[in-house]
Amino acid sequence: MRRLVLLSVLVSRLALAGWASLPAISGAPQDLVVVDGGVVVAASLSEAVARGTDGGLIAQLTGSFVGAGLFSGNCLAALSSATASVSISAGCGTGGMGAGTPRRFRVFSNGLSVARVSQGMDGLLVAPLPTGTFLSPTGLVPWSALIPRSLQAATINGADVAILNETAARLQLSVDGGAPFPIPLQAPARDAVPFARLGAGAAVVVSSAGAVGLVPVLGQADVAVILPMGFTAQFVAMSTDGAGDAGTGYGLITSTTGAVLSPVPDPSEPGSVWILRSGAPPMTDRVHCFDARWCAGFGAGGVIHLLSNDFAPVLDLDAGALLPGVPSAVTASASDQDGDPVFITWSSATAQITPGADPEGRAATLLVPAGQECTSATVPLTLTISDGLGEHDRTVVAMVPLASTAGASILPLAPVVDPGDPPVAFTAGSDGGCAGATFMWSTSDGQSGAGPTFNWNVPATACSADGGTAQVSVAWRDPAGHQANASTTVTVTPWGRPNAPQFPAPAVQSAGTTQVWSPLDGGHACSTTSTFPGLELDWMLSVPPAGVTLTPVDGGLEVASSDVCTRATLTATAQFRVAGASAAQASGPGTLTVDLVPSPPALGPSTPFAINLEVDAGVAMGFFTVDAGCRDLALLSAEVSLGVPDASVVAQQTFPTVPGPWSLPIPASCGAGQFELVARLLDDGGVTGAEVRDLVPADTLPVLPGVAAPSTLPVTCGVGGRGQLTVASNPNGCATPLATWRQTGGPALTQSTLAGTTVEVQTVSTGFDVVGERLSFDVEVSDGAGASASGPHEVLLTAAPFVKISESLSPFPAREEEPGVVTVRLENTSTCDVSGLTVREVLTHLVPVIDSVRASGPLEAEWGAGTLTLRGVSLAAGATETITFKVRRQLLSRPEAVGSVLLRDQLVSIRPEVPPTSTGCGCHGGGESLLGLSVLLLLLRRRGGLRGSRRLV
In this structure, which long-range contacts are made by residues 553-559, counting pairs with CB atoms below 8 Å and at least 24 apart in sequence? Predict the structure, then answer.
């Protein structure tokens, strides 16, 4: 938000040039209004007049009036103080107020009633009101029991705001004719005026004691306004109409001794200073301002004083050159022929501005940031001047000169060079960092260049016994036109310093040898000059390592080394010096570094190499020792192996550290009692011939029989039991090269002797009579070296299924007491007779009648645990057998009969694939009838089966 500053002093040569006095109004003044063009409308208890700026009479009414207003043309209207009626002048025409847009018209009070003047039509409408009420657009609204002294109106933010002065210590407001509301004041109000500034509504109030308060926002309490010392206000006027962006409008406060004329204050900053305009005509009654151009007020005897704002202000700027980084005081002189206060605002895109303490803004402090010295010769400064009227606002752009403190400089300063030196790099600079500056270089020996850097080449003619100097200069110029020069002197030394001696790197010399080390170059740029006196090589030697002798010789250093076994490094420093010259013409130091490398003896079979040997828990271990002389021990390693003497190696490992520890697991052996250990010394991976041999005892593995297989052997009709038997080596023992099988039980075999890890066996019997029996063997294994062991092995004789079995269940009779019949059919599918078969029938929800079992031969029957067991069944080759037995069914159950055939506990039966019957029974045969099921549903008890064992004939 823009801060408003107010005038603090009066410019005497312009004192109140815009005031004019108009003829006095007769009678006691009651009201005064300035309208467009400076026309003054005044009302008194004797007349109402409208006068022009020259005092000429425009319209007049005779009577006692409390207020008047001028409409379009010369239509004058006045409100009677006695009857609250409105009188109009002849200029209003007959039947109305005349054509044209109505002027802003005020609302008047006669002390007993209030009238509001409409503005929305060409004409005048005055509505008298009863005491204590206020007319709103929608009807009457209760006003107050207090009697208003006067009423003022203004449009703020599009809303009509009426402000009434009260005899009590409060201010009453009404917005758009709405219900009024009070604002407490510090003292009873004598006068009040509404105004808008920067879009905010406010009011200035004069108390009965002459103090001035500002109400920044409608509804807030007033804030004191600062008046000149000893000034007591009587009446106040405000106008912001016509104020521009920089203009402020007019504000006028009067007393019997003078007037205050200042800009309209900002409602958000009420603590503004108002300035006394000494010499102004005294104004004792009502004042009014219009359009920030005209102000009028009553003087003594009813004389009307009119102020016109006709002339725009003028500006003079007093500003010297600005020095960047240094605050500079700048003063502006402003004047106005009307005597109006002139206010100045400052702005700049380059300089930082600090306003001065004077309220008119005539002084400021400018600060251009450092580093701007070379960017421009001037700084644009924008000043806006205002006398309150927007059309008088003026903006002036002044170009303030910018001082420059920049100057040229050269680095390095006064360098000293030698003939043959590389080019000297000079850098030019300017204080303040002048961007875009140009640099031009020149030298006393004719070299030149441009830009911020310049390389000066040491001339070839610099090789002399006297040396010399050269002048290097730079001319600097920035874009603003500032210039500066700088120079420096280069000194060339006589002949110049030689180059430092350079030695070969790396320099390596074997111990026990003598060698001369010399610099690699001539050492001076002037060495080809005919008068050059040459160079001398000076050595600065330190104490050499033991066994080394250093001797300076012509042009180098002789290094003599004895035959040592430790690596050593020697260093020696040398410098070149111009022959016959002082030390000032000596070169920098050069360092010779020689690496003395020992010459180690070759390692061979006679090299002292030994190991110590310990054996513990199957591990051989020890420590290598060696006497390698100067040989690098990091290159030595040892290989250790275990094996049968003069035969194969069973374990081997290489150890990288000699001297150092070693360990090697000893493998267990079958038959052998010891291994030969061989340790070989290696040099950089190669065999040296030095080795150690020793014998290491080995653990002997036992002979253990392995697993024999298989555990079963099939029996085939016409062949008998036949197959291969094998025995594997035991992983915890030695290998099994030999095996012998001795039968200890079971059917007779066709072989009497069985030998080998794999043997073929066959029973003498070729039928099924051996099924279910077991072959027993004692298996003996040996390692071929006299060690042996044995263990048992059994083989069960089995047979592939060869008896087909199937069942069928006949339907149950209608009478529940009668049982059904299960028929079991057996078929021998082989070509061998078989006897001693066992049939097992698992019955589900069926109970057999033991005495009912029938077959072609005698059988033994047994019932228990839901299974019917039939023993002693015989079947000829390819023959069939039928077995029947009666069964009783359990109530509401699904019957099943599933059988199997065993030969000496070995399953030999197979079942043909038969789909299930419609009854869901697992048997083969017919289903149950509906009648049978009905009988079963009526069965009230279960029938129990017979249990026990019986042989049937």
Answer: 553/516, 555/518, 555/519, 556/516, 556/517, 556/518, 556/519, 557/516, 557/517, 557/518, 557/592, 558/514, 558/515, 558/516, 559/509, 559/514, 559/515, 559/516, 559/517, 559/594
d(CA 221, CA 213): 9
Asked whether the CA dihedral 902, 903, 905, 906 is positive or negative, the reply is negative
Please write the tens of the pLDDT for every residue from 469-480. Answer: 899 999 888 776
* Separation between Cα atoms, residue 429 and residue 486, nearest integer Å: 10
Residue type, 64: S
Lowest mean pLDDT among 223-232, 352-361, 531-540, 878-887: 223-232
Closest CA to 364 of 346, 351, 339: 346
- Distance separating alpha carbons of residues 903 and 839, to the nearest angstrom: 9
Residue 719: which of 675, 669, 772, 771 has the closest Cα?
Answer: 771
Question: Is 8 a residue whose pLDDT tops 80?
Answer: no
Is 561 buried (19+), middle (13-18) or exposed (0-12) by CB count in 10 A?
buried
> 472 with 408: CB under 8 angstroms?
no
At residue 460, the 3 state secondary structure works out as helix
Task: Yes or no: say if 273 and 8 are a contact pair by the CB < 8 Å rule.
Answer: yes
Q: What per-residue confidence (pLDDT) applies to 584?
A: 65
Phi, psi of 26 (to 5 degrees): -80, 150
Most confident of 653-657, 788-792, 889-893: 653-657
- Measured distance CA(245)–CA(393) in Å, rounded: 8
* 391 contact partners, CB below 8 Å, separation of at least 6: 242, 244, 312
- Report d(CA 401, CA 482) in Å as an integer: 13
Task: Return the DSSP state at 763.
Answer: B
Identity of residue 491 = T
Residue 430 half-sphere exposure, CB side, CA atoms within 13 Å?
29
Q: Which amino acid is at 925?
A: G
Report how far residue 537's alpha carbon sits from residue 520's, in angstroms, rounded to the nearest whole number: 13
Q: Output helix, strand, coil percentages for the chain, rounded to the nearest 5.
A: 5, 50, 45
Q: Which amino acid is at 152?
A: Q
- Between CA 106 and CA 34 the distance in angstroms is 11
pTM as predicted: 0.44
**By the 8 A CB rule, do 781 and 758 touch?**
no
Q: What is the mean pLDDT of residues 510-531?
A: 81
pLDDT at 795 over 80: yes
Q: Which residues contact 379 (CB under 8 A, 6 or more apart)?
A: 322, 348, 350, 351, 366, 368, 399, 400, 401, 402
CA distances from residue 317 to 103, 338, 346, 381, 399 in whole angstroms, order as listed: 42, 21, 12, 10, 10
Q: How many CA atoms lie within 13 A of 762 on its CB side?
A: 11
b/e for 84-115, b at 16 or more Cβ within 10 A? bebbbbebbeeeebbeeebbbbbbbbbeebbb
What residues have CB less than 8 Å from 130, skipping those under 6 apart? 113
Residue range 897-924, pLDDT digits in tens: 999 999 999 999 998 875 554 443 455 4
pLDDT at residue 94 in the model? 56
Please state which of the ranges 312-321, 416-425, 669-678, 785-794 shows the lowest mean pLDDT. 669-678
What are the angstrom distances between the C-alpha of 624 and each of 603, 629, 640, 646, 692?
16, 15, 11, 24, 10
